[in-house]
Write a structure and sequence with these properties.
The complex is a heterodimer of chains A (515) and B (348). Chain A is α/β, with parallel strands linked by helices. Chain A has 18 helices and 22 strands. Chain A is elongated and about 75 Å long. Chain B contains 14 helices and four strands. Helices cover 71% and strands 4% of the residues of chain B. In chain B, a hairpin with a 3-residue loop joins strand 2 and strand 3 (191-194). Chain B has helices at residues 17-40, 47-72, 80-95, 106-112, 116-139, 145-164, 174-181, 195-213, 215-225, 227-232, 237-263, 274-284, 296-315, 320-347, and strands at 169-170, 183-187, 191-194, 265-266. The chains are: A alpha/beta (515), B mainly alpha (348). At the A-B interface, helix 10, helix 11, helix 13, helix 15 and helix 16 of A face helix 9 and helix 10 of B.
Amino acid sequence: MQARKADRLTPLLQVQDISKGFPGVQALTGVALEVRAGECHALLGENGAGKSTLLKILAGAHRPDTGTITFDGRPVEIARPADAQALGIVTIYQEFNLLPNLTIAENVFVGREPTRGPFVDWKKLNQQAREVTRRIGLDMDPRRLVKDLSVAEQQMVEIAKALSMEARLVIMDEPTAALSETEVERLFRIIADLKAHGIAVVFVTHRLDEVMRACDRVTVLRDGKLVGSAEVKDIRVDDIIRMMVGREVELHGRGGRVAHRGATVLEVQNLTRMGDANDPHAVRVRDVSLTAHAGEILGIGGLIGAGRTELARAIFGADPIDSGKVLIEGREVAITTPQDAIRHGIGLVPEDRKQQALFLSLAIRPNLSMAALDGLTERLGFVSGSKERALVERYRQKLSIRMASQEQPVGNLSGGNQQKVVLARWLALNPKVLIVDEPTRGIDIAAKNEVHHLLFELAEAGIAVIVISSEMPELLRLADRIVTMREGRVTGELMRDRATEESLMHLFTHNQTAA
Amino acid sequence: MASATQTGETRNGGIDLFGLLATYAPLIFLLVLMGIFAWLEPRFLLPLNLVNVMRQVSIYGLLALGMTFVILTAGIDLSIGAIVAFAGLAAAAVAKGGLENRFAAGADASALGYGWPLAMLVAILFGTFAGALQGFAITRLKVPPFVVTLGGMSAFRGAALLMAGGGPISGFDPGYTWWGQGYLFTLPLIGRIPVPVVVFLLFAVLAHIVLSYTRYGRHVYGVGGNPEAARLSGLNVRGITMSVYVLMGFMAGLSGFILSARLNSAEAVAGMGYELIVIASVVIGGTSLFGGIGTIFGTVIGTILIGVLQNGLVLNNVSPYVQQIIIGLIIVLAVAFDTFAKSRRRRA
């Protein structure tokens, strides 16, 4: 560990004009980032702003299409993770990179164990591990197995590993997401210690109050572009929020159509799902109550990990709940499996189309009819071919699904048309409640617009539509009413005319329940 | 991901050339193989020889039909050879009127035994029960199918050895052996058609109808193609998974009975290595080990292909050891093709 207190203002890392495209998505366009030695630098942005892509470029997991990276005054190329390590750039991901069945010492020095001849020098290994862990306040027998440690302790093992590699820049992706208050305090003390030794820390988080406390500067990304950088001492939380969401909202509401809010169809009371108690990354749902009305689109907003998807899955019976009630049209119903939910008229379009909704090995026809087969089945369990083809044809026209034939593999369709097939699967069941998780993820603008109009039509037809979206413009456009969530709890509820990106971002990132 | 201009287009006009090739590749391979063997040894094409091939494959074929259902759900069943032996012995014991009468013969035996219908029923019940037991372990205890049926392979073989007490049970009445050795009718030009061949083809047609035209068949494809999507679409994933092992057990029980009838003998070492040949037949026939893709037509072709290969190699005096090497190579190549096809679909 060389202390480099020399010149705090010389940038340690300088990223210039970085662009990176993936098929169909331009993840980063001309982004710049400057990190000085010994500072804590927060990298901020909404979901999908490009933070992860930038981090992965710095870690050597992705290669940029264009742009330059200068480290310690020299232009460098980070083509592989090993290159990043050689420079002293260490990334600590949310899912730690630890080997649970090995000891603390083995994890800290994995691949770099001190040896005596061909053998590992265990004494030296444990002694060195003890020194480095003690430096960051993890006073523990280095021979303990990592799997027996708490999340916070595992994180400290990661940091110790970074230190032992002579790290000069430590990147932490949402390090506080799974920590308790006191553990966060301890992490901040470690960060302060790293800073004092001239090590730079890049910190990704959604918790802006932490940024204000622990960081020196911020860089904000939006839609893959750089919004700007600022000294933390010069700005307020509101400024950061404005930088994060500041885009124009391109599309407005239902094009003048007014929602006719009908009777309460779905009522959720005090629903709680704690998930796997041993999984520190489990996203939980805590005491959530909400109602959805016929003819209305209810939006559920929040950042990744807020518990929106988990809430939807719990209502739908896809995951077991710990407590709470679900009422359909005023009557309590017992839903423990998706089959129960479907019987009570609830449909769910899941967030990950390919993993959770589509049967990629099958054609469009069986994909569309999969949930509705009961209604198409005649004597002896035979599926009526003519009824099935008519059903598919009906929804092809209704949703303008563009396909060459019903027998085409569903994987050959564009994302928008695939999403329409999944929507049609549920519409064929005439649901009372349709929950749509990320209705337009990964589909192009034109198809997005079509899906939005389809959702308006469904609401107008009297379905209680619930939309979960990580894109705030989409939420603001679709929803008549928005319920916001943070860390598994409902933090607020806004009617559309009162919701703005700023007011939503406040509810997504702050603790207090706003009016 | 499509850009705005691509929204209306499908990637390749909707005709999946690669898929078509994948569907007919086994058939083309079979015809080429038959051509080669006919050229090398004209006797290969004699109707008598071809009927013989069909009779040889009919037991593998019955098992392969059940295995197609299992593999369609991305499962596997390694225990079928052992269940064949176990069920065959059970049938033999019933036919003999109990294990203590195993050495009775002729009129004596017929008098003591309970007759072939009960023997067949018991074989099928034993097989079905064995399948249900394994299905339970897979769906309720959440043990992977490979492990459960590997255990089953050992356990049912052990049960068979225990039941047989070391020696075979031989000599059944003609009603019994008719199921393995008899002929049902004569076709012009081809000749007499063996009973096992007819049983195999009847079940093949039935299995094809179930898989292609019924709700249950659709659910099998759904569960195999994407279990999570199937669950979220309201399918009873556990029940369907359970059912394919029960079905497989049924077929193994029936096959055990027919094998004992064909050999006029049931022994604990019957059906050794069948799992390999049967899984090979299904995979060569185009069913994906990853689940969700496959047809009964393909399985029938795959089964015949293995039979033709074995028969043709024997006619050409190729050592049975070399046969094993060739079959092993073909299995690996078929799966390599399957993996390649899957990566192609992924990219699509």
